[in-house]
Recover the amino acids of this structure.
């Protein structure tokens, strides 16, 4: 094998190195000035990461085009590399022109680096990927897996056990292979007006409202980038990593918080207003805010400690749990369990929304899966009954008593069934033959007896709840709990939900 | 609709379901141990005695019926007035939720099943429901009082509701069918996840692909474009996921993907190999009215295929497009077999020019059974013992 001939002798010293440097510079400029594309991958990366922090990897990957041929316009494939967001290192990849990297080799290489170095992986998606049948065998970590050219990254993603956060952003219409990361990532952000589907489509459903596939939508690419940065602000860089705690005070007890909750037991109110008073100012960050709205899921900070909040929302169907809200809560619990975010469960719910439609929508199986998810999650769990908590919904939202601390406000009603319904059901035999007036009086008397048993003090006698608290002290209780449990998990903590599939 | 005749009591039902004379009560009202086709089981009222089955490491069969724990009164001796009675017992018992499918669990719904007895069916591996019964979170009576919705037992949670939404495996028109379904399901499964597969006669009479008479469809009325079943090949029990081109062109719809994922979870938990018969059309975009993303469900199935450690065989009978390509692509090299019938085509969006996705070769349709049998015998060895796979930690239902 012949080696390249050295520099001719007549050239001055150092000229060869300079020539090589110039050639590298020329090629880099040409690669980076790739032909314009409707969504310039390099510009997308620049929008997302800290200015000046991007160190490109794979600049010269031209995917079988002769890289030194000056006559060929440089194809713009995906662009990726290392960068920082708010000073934290990340790996970022933005997809390029469709078909320029048919095996997804660049994203695969960068995903591998991210997993090995335990860095968050951010993937900006657009375009139509045609998965081809090229690559048959790829080495994936310690396992050998057969892939088709959805890309070598694909089996990595399928086998993911959520060791690093994968945040994907749909920046333009995304179909086929290009959409696969969207169905496997941890948090998905979509730019409004873009389409996301298994196949090209003109009228896909709203992933924000109807399918719940997307966690966050944003009107512009700039805004979507800002959302990705915000999401990262609540997550550790890898599973088991320290949570990004910020500086914040607990503050004095909020004695007026109870006024947010109407005394009349059936009156609706905005649970998000309650959460905002409990968490640090402007720290509530909702995921899937328009899907299954009778449950609120979101990140929040309590005296700087990030946590995941799951709360029923009495303003939507009285806060009753539905099959879809189970799916939403399961997805969120799995995210929190995977990355070590403690769960704060707030409930004011009349129970499971019972109806023919709910049963047809698999109420039995889905409620059990939610029960299982909240029960199995091994992150610290604190639950607060704000006003009402009945039946299966109470058990589920109290994490089946596997929670570490279960609290109730003094006016809370807790029991197997909404008391007026319970009185009707329990005493139906006695009231069957009564006249309307007599029945009403009888039931009112029985209801009064029942109601005493539904007070939190009665429930607390059995330790079915741990403590009845002043509403104003709730924030302090939560902060104390998060401080007490922070960094005290067994090492490594079992993450039973990390292997669960992406929902919904 | 009323039951065609009175259902037997739980203990009477246990006696008729198990091998004659084999029932040994562990509790005078709850159930006990018995044999089914000569193999031991624990059988009882839904939720009770479950831990005995775990301790004895054999299947648990639940006779499901009941109004729900809250209406039974509770431990504080407040009777009907106890607001939290029963709310920490039975199916909500943590070991049940964390069971990781160590033993097969069956729910036989022989009477109306509400509240905690219905919860139990939500976490079982196999659910068979008797026509005329209702399984639902809450009874029509409570529904009428609580929400004013007037609905019949059948409409709320009858077999025709649950065979379409995928919450039951078999709808039984009579008790004989119900008993037979329970016995048949258990005949394909090992007694526990770490015990040997129940092999039948390897010289069984061959059918088209599976041993003649061995095809036992589960969740048949649900997402019918893809069939799921238990069957045998040369006596080896297998799970089957098969496109049915006569319904919706055999498409892996969102619900069909969930159905297939569920079967895969069962097989990976108990060590049954899975045979895929794939004739899958190009992916179709979700319509504007869709409430489930088929993209997301397709990837859930692909993830299950990739994670499952049981041997998997893929036979592309005609087309491997869309999800069909996705899941064959996720097959593992070590234990999985991917073959195609002559002329079969592959490609995600449709036929890719001249491409056939058959990394392990083309087989003639008539030689399929022999090829699968040879592969399974080779990778399983003479006395295959289940090695519980990672999907045992997945939810049972979706």
């Amino acid at each position: 094998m012949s080696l390249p001939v050295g520099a001719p002798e007549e050239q001055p010293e150092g000229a060869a190195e300079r020539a090589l440097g110039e050639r590298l510079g020329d090629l880099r400029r040409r690669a980076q000035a790739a032909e314009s594309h409707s969504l310039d991958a390099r510009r997308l990366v620049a929008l997302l990461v800290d200015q000046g922090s991007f160190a490109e990897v794979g600049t010269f990957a031209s995917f079988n085009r002769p890289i030194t041929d000056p006559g060929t316009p440089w194809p713009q494939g995906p662009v990726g590399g290392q960068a920082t967001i708010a000073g934290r290192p990340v790996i970022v990849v933005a997809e390029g022109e469709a078909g320029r990297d048919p095996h997804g080799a660049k994203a695969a290489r960068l995903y591998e680096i991210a997993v090995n170095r335990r860095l968050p992986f951010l993937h900006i998606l657009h375009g139509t990927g045609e998965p081809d049948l090229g690559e048959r065998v790829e080495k994936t970590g310690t396992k050998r897996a057969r892939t088709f050219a959805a890309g070598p990254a694909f089996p990595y993603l399928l086998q993911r056990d959520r060791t690093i956060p994968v945040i994907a952003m749909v920046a333009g219409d995304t179909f086929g292979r290009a959409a696969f990361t969207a169905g496997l990532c941890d948090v998905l952000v979509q730019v409004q007006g873009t389409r996301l589907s298994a196949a090209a489509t003109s009228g896909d459903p709203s992933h924000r409202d109807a399918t719940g596939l997307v966690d966050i939508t944003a009107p512009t690419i700039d805004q979507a980038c800002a959302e990705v940065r915000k999401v990262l602000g609540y997550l550790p860089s890898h599973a088991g990593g320290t949570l990004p705690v910020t500086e914040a005070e607990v503050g004095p007890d909020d004695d007026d918080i109870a006024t947010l909750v109407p005394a009349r037991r059936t009156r609706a109110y905005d649970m998000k207003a309650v959460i905002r008073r409990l968490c640090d100012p402007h720290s509530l960050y909702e995921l899937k805010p328009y899907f299954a709205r009778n449950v609120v899921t979101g990140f929040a900070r309590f005296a700087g400690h990030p946590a995941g909040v799951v709360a029923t929302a009495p303003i939507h169907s009285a806060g009753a749990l539905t099959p879809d809200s189970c799916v939403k809560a399961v997805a969120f619990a799995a995210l929190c369990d995977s990355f070590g975010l403690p769960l704060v469960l707030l409930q004011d719910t009349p129970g499971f929304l019972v109806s023919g439609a709910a049963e047809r929508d698999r109420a039995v199986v889905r409620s059990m899966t939610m029960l299982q998810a909240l029960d199995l999650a091994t992150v610290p769990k604190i639950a607060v009954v704000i006003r009402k908590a009945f039946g299966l919904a109470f058990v589920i939202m109290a994490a089946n008593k596997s929670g570490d601390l279960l609290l109730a406000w003094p006016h809370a009603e807790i029991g197997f069934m909404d008391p007026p319904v319970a009185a009707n059901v329990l005493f139906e035999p006695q009231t069957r033959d009564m006249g309307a007036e007599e029945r009403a009086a009888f039931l009112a008397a029985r209801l009064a007896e029942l109601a005493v048993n539904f007070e939190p003090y009665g429930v607390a006698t059995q330790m079915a709840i741990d403590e009845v608290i002043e509403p104003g002290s709730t924030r302090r209780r939560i902060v104390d709990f998060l401080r007490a449990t922070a960094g005290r998990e067994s090492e490594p903590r079992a993450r039973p939900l990390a292997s669960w599939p992406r929902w919904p | 609709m009323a039951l065609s005749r009175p259902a037997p009591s739980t203990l009477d039902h246990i006696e008729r379901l198990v091998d004659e004379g084999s029932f040994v009560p562990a509790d005078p009202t709850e159930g006990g141990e018995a044999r089914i086709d000569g193999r031991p089981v624990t059988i009882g009222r839904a939720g009770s005695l479950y831990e005995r089955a775990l301790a004895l490491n054999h299947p648990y069969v639940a006779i499901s019926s009941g109004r729900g724990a809250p209406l039974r009164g509770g431990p504080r001796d407040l009777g009907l007035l106890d607001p939290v009675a029963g709310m920490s017992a039975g199916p909500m018992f943590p070991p049940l939720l964390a069971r990781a499918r160590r033993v097969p669990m069956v729910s036989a719904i022989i009477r109306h099943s509400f509240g905690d007895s219905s919860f139990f069916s939500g976490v079982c591996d196999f659910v068979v429901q008797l026509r005329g019964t209702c399984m639902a979170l809450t009874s029509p009576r409570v529904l009428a009082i609580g929400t004013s919705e007037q609905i019949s037992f059948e409409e709320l949670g009858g077999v025709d509701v649950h065979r379409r939404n995928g919450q039951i495996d078999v709808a039984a028109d009579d008790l004989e069918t119900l008993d037979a379904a329970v016995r048949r399901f258990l005949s394909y499964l090992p007694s526990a996840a770490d015990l040997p597969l129940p092999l039948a006669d390897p010289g069984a009479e061959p059918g088209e692909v599976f041993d003649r008479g061995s095809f036992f469809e589960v969740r048949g009325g649900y997402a019918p474009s893809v069939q799921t079943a238990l069957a045998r090949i040369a006596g080896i029990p297998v799970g089957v996921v098969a496109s049915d081109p006569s319904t919706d062109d055999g498409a892996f719809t969102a619900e069909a993907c969930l159905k297939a994922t569920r079967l895969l979870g069962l097989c990976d938990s108990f060590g049954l190999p899975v045979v895929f018969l794939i004739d899958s059309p190009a992916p179709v975009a979700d319509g504007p009215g869709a409430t489930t993303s088929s993209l997301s469900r397709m990837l859930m199935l692909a993830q299950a295929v990739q994670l499952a450690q049981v041997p998997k065989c893929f036979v592309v009978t005609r087309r491997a497009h869309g999800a069909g390509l996705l899941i064959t692509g996720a097959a593992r090299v070590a234990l999985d077999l991917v073959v195609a019938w002559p002329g079969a085509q592959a490609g995600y969006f449709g036929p890719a020019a001249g491409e056939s996705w058959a990394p392990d070769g083309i087989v003639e349709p008539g030689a399929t059974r022999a090829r699968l049998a040879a592969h399974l015998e080779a990778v399983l060895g003479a006395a295959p013992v289940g090695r519980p796979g990672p999907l045992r930690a997945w939810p049972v239902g979706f």
